Amino acid sequence: MNATQINIDFIAKGTGLPIVYTHGWADDRTAWDGVIESLGNDSRSIAWSIRGHGDSDAPPPGNYTRTHTLGDLSKIVDMEDDQVVLVGHSLGGYLSLAFCLLYPDRVKALILVAAGPGFRKEETREQWNSSVRDSAKKMDIPEGSEEAALHVDSWVLDSLGEIAVPVLVIVGEKDKRFSASMAVFEKYLDVRSSVVVPEAGHSVHRKDPTAVAKAIQDFLSDIS
């Protein structure tokens, strides 16, 4: 099975400004159901499942690199004629940043939900990667799919200053690990708003989809 044979599971609803939602590792597109429902049909919402997740195809190991996943995201974005707003949770936020670096003309804005830009130090990257590999051994996920969550360089972090689109950052109050990324984003990106959702953890969009939708709606109103 090669890249051209991968079937990507996605849904699209509504009309207007296209918003593409990318979930985190070991999750799927349904993570965004509550947010999309809260937003209604005033925007065009497109949620997709990363390869090896949800109902998307699960190819053999070696087919889950950042390049593979960004290629799939590119296919989703290509379905729209206009620029898109990229919304990403955790790994999905990292991928959204990477996509914006590769294809800046295709992105109107970024919404980073409990996301991080990666790690500059090789030692820190390896600590992260070891934790991902250890977690994968305990989970019922396709073999090799954990590669999507591994970090191999500091390209995204080192290149944040090249991203010029407006940005919304959302984190849960209890998500201490990813709350630290907020200051990094505010330093290097054009962050128009940073929202901390009370009582929420890492899966802030599942815990309080209404609050996340409200933050998105306010942000999009400000940049339109």
Kindly list the characteristics that best describe this protein.
37% helix; 224 residues; globular; 8 helices; alpha/beta; Rossmann fold; single chain
Summarize the helices and strands and which ones pair or pack.
Elements: E1 10-13, E2 18-22, H1 33-39, E3 44-48, H2 66-77, E4 84-89, H3 91-102, E5 107-113, H4 122-137, H5 155-158, E6 166-172, H6 176-188, E7 190-197, H7 204-207, H8 209-223
Parallel strand pairs: 2-3, 2-4, 4-5, 5-6, 6-7
Antiparallel strand pairs: 1-3
Helix pairs in contact: 1-8
Q: CATH architecture, please?
A: 3-Layer(aba) Sandwich
**Count of individual helical segments:** 8
Roughly what is the average pLDDT, rounded to an integer? 96
- Major β-sheet strand ordering: 1-3-2-4-5-6-7
Total tally of structural domains: 1
Poorly predicted ranges (pLDDT <50, ≥5 residues)? none
- The level of helicity is 25-40%
The name of the CATH superfamily reads: Alpha/Beta hydrolase fold, catalytic domain
Shape: globular
- The CATH topology label is Rossmann fold
Major sheet: size, sense and barrel closure?
A: 7 strands, mixed
The helix-and-strand class reads alpha/beta
Rg to the nearest angstrom?
Answer: 16 Å
Written as H for each helix and E for each strand, in order along the chain, the element string is: EEHEHEHEHHEHEHH
User: In CATH's first tier, which class applies?
Assistant: Alpha Beta
Q: What fraction of the residues are assigned to beta strands by DSSP?
A: 15-25%
Overall number of strands: 7
Distance between the termini: 42 Å
